[in-house]
Write a structure and sequence with these properties.
The chain has about 270 residues and is mainly β. About 10% of the residues lie in helices and about 50% in strands. It has a single domain, classed as Lipovitellin-phosvitin complex, beta-sheet shell regions.
């Protein structure tokens, strides 16, 4: 009897065929919850003396599929169930915001960040390949950030996924205030299918700003926007399962000779 039940369950789970085009399978009313953890350090060294700023970010974001049109383009709304951000300055000072422990948080941050938790922040339209069709609303950062850092991180190719397949996405990075004054830079996201095992595809990711940057200082805000790592995609369910990035980039001469600026970050996002 147990063997029969197990077989019946397997028959209910759709299998991915190598002949199929991989795609996001949006369903009206569907809710996708992701837990994000990111640790970033910015180290500025002058004459061998480092000044380190460390930021730890944890959040739980919830995407709800509001509607799906006849072409398979979904309207999704994103809200945060939890937000925790801790920053340590080079002087050793610490600021903290935790939506689940506001009494232990820095008062100024409670006032500033509480509004981002529990209510819709982002409304976008995304097609079956993960391409951003429209940003209808963006309260958590500028809309241009979503065009560079896609809501679901990448786009699928227009052909079936097989190991060794490579494709890329070209886009523009726009630096909005306070990071910039609206400057735009061409960038590329290069993707490679590392493996397909059953219904699971593992995809390598590398990003880079390809356009010229005038000086070292202008490169600094671009560093967090050039991650590298891998994604895991559920081909049968049509869902992003996880993202794991780890990158470190160095800029010499940010404050003259014998100076460097290094940005390093680890980023993990997992479907709950």
């Amino acid at each position: 009897m147990k063997r029969f039940c197990a077989l019946a369950l397997l028959l209910l789970v759709p299998a991915y065929s190598p002949a199929q085009e991989a795609k996001f399978r949006w369903q009206p009313g569907q809710v996708l919850t992701y837990r994000v953890q990111q640790v970033s350090t910015a180290t500025e060294s002058v004459a061998g003396k480092p000044a380190v700023t460390e930021t730890k970010l944890e959040l739980v974001k919830k995407w709800q599929v509001v509607a799906v049109d006849a072409a398979g383009v979904a309207t999704l709304s994103m809200s945060l169930d939890r937000l925790r951000m801790e920053t340590k300055s080079p002087r050793g000072d610490t600021t903290l915001f935790d939506s689940m422990a506001k009494d232990k948080s820095t008062p100024a941050l409670v006032e500033e960040l509480s509004k981002y938790v529990g209510s819709p922040l982002t409304v976008v339209r995304i097609d079956g390949r993960g391409q951003l069709a429209e940003v209808k609303e963006s309260k958590f950062g500028p809309a241009s950030r979503l065009e560079a850092d896609l809501p679901f991180k990448f786009t699928l190719p227009a052909v079936p996924l097989v190991a060794g397949l490579a494709w890329e996405r070209k886009y523009q990075v726009k630096l909005e205030p306070p990071q910039g004054a609206g400057e735009t830079y061409p960038a590329v996201q290069k993707l490679t299918c590392k493996s397909v095992q059953g219904n699971v595809a593992t995809i390598g990711v590398a990003t880079a700003v390809t356009g010229p940057v005038e000086n070292q200082i202008e490169q600094i805000p671009l560093l967090p926007l050039q991650p590298a790592g891998e994604l895991v995609f559920d081909l049968a369910a049509g869902r992003l399962k996880s993202v794991k990035y780890q990158w470190s980039k160095e800029i010499p001469g940010t404050q003259g000779e014998n100076s460097t600026y290094v940005f390093a970050s680890t980023y993990v996002e997992e479907l709950q």
